[in-house]
Amino acid sequence: MSLKKSASFALRAMLASLAVVSAALPAAAHAKELTQVRFAVDPTYPPFESKQADGKLAGFDIDLGNALCAQMKLKCVWIENSFDGMIPGPRPASSTPCCPT
Q: Which CATH architecture has domain 32-100?
């Protein structure tokens, strides 16, 4: 393929991508207002996730999630689950790791 054809193909691909993104923007403008972020955690993995004596969650992941929520001005919801229960993947109506709702 010549350089001219490659450049033309790349330009058409970029324009098509731009058209898709532009078409999606009006839908994003009508999206539901975010109020919380739900995190699924397994509190048996210190120092990343663990439970304190008073029952509160603690650890690096908890601190990071709380900092992200504070920066985004959203509520953090921590859902305790076993790690094996997270493997099949997130379900929309249940805990969705790192996905706003």
A: 3-Layer(aba) Sandwich (3.40)
